[in-house]
Specification:
The protein is an all-alpha fold and 148 residues long. It is built from 4 helices and no strands.
Length: 148
Amino acid sequence: MNIKINNIPGFMQAELEQLQSTLSPLLKKNMKYGFFSTVMIGFSIINLFFLLFKNESLPISKISLGIYALVGAVGFALLKENKHNQREIVKMSQKYMLERINKSGYLTDARKNNYFKRVNEHPITAMNVFLEFLAEEQQWKNKSSHPE
């Protein structure tokens, strides 16, 4: 489950791998919940449809109706847990980014505050802001290690 993007620099790839290792247990759990909820909801809806509307010759069994409804309810519960986990993943990744920005010794406090503000105000574009931060930090590292 490694993120492999060919056209980003190695220092960014290393940071993304650290972020991914932090999030991987929750991501795996989230993927399982998403898969199982989709299967269970689909199974339940299809069977309930055929049981209620297409089954004219056999009597409707209350037990099978209850089982399909229960499977659907469990599927929707997993879907809700999946959405909750997605919010938690966003919070954890945002927390990691903010801690990493704060840890930087190459940028001024004003620049760090700018990145903090942008990550907090626009969580949808937080990853782009984080990559921009990493690029700027790398530029400062290169300037400090190669004085002109």
